[in-house]
Amino acid sequence: MNPLLNVKNCILLGLPEPRKQETQREYIRRILLAGHSINTRQCRFIGIGNLHSVVSALRKRRFPLRVEHKPAIDPRSGELLPQPVDHVSADFAEVASIENAPSEPEA
Question: Domain for residue 36, yes or no?
Answer without folding.
Answer: yes
